[in-house]
Amino acid sequence: MPTLRQFEYLVAVADHGHFGKAAQAAAASQPTLSHQLRTLEQRLGVTLVERRTHGAELTPVGREIAARARQVLVEVKDIRDLAERASDSLAGILRFGVSPTLGPYLMPPVIAALHRTRPVLRFYMREGIPDLQAMELTKGSIDMLLGPLPIEGENLHIEPLFREPLMLVAPPDHPFASRDHLTLSDLAGSPVLSLDRRHHLHRDVVSQCQQHDMNLLRDYEGTSLDSVRQMVASGLGLAILPELYVRSELARGGDVALLNVEGWSVTRSIGAAWRSNAGFAAEYALIAAKIADEARVLMAS
Question: Which pLDDT belongs to residue 117?
Fold first, then answer.
């Protein structure tokens, strides 16, 4: 019978397309991984991997078996977590995925508070694109995910947490910066900067540009909130930034001006996600509640 370890090797090759990288990810030597995959192929009676000089590619049946093996591995992990939960509380390393437009400005006080109450719990933080991290969550590569909604994936529990205001900023020498009163109609035709289109925030910015006849500068997409802010400061245009970022980075005086526009009440929804059958689902819900509480405190301060 195939072993779980052999399935882990197969999934690693599916993820990396290279024996050396797969072996490194699976914490095994390359000869061991290669030998175990050949043994798996012999036991199943099919060719799973096409071996090439500069890489490896799964055969059609190999891809299908790898997908099912991945689900088996996720379920086995959840069973182990459930067994651990029966004898102890959540401990060890929690692999936590978070959006780069949120995590650095919210998670530090959350982690500090959780560490005080759960000193045996460690967070392995991984920033990434929310859609890609939702796939990693489904595959079992991470345990929990925090990011803008919607979060989509099979067999995931999605927990809405809070709504975060999105704020308009302008260059400090922009005509808007010196005006005490602005209306939504004043925004028409204004150039607006954003992150690249893989981010949920980009979609929010597109929506607001369409609604208020603003001009999205698609040739100047930022790679981070800091890069967007810096382009605004240089005079390229306006930007729409999350409140937690603004409070964290602009509270001590920044290089952009915060605009007060009558009728502007734009928000984004933030939520947490974990696998529906996760062994520590109840503990993940408590962590999610703590995140929501901390966010409300920060935005009310």
Answer: 79
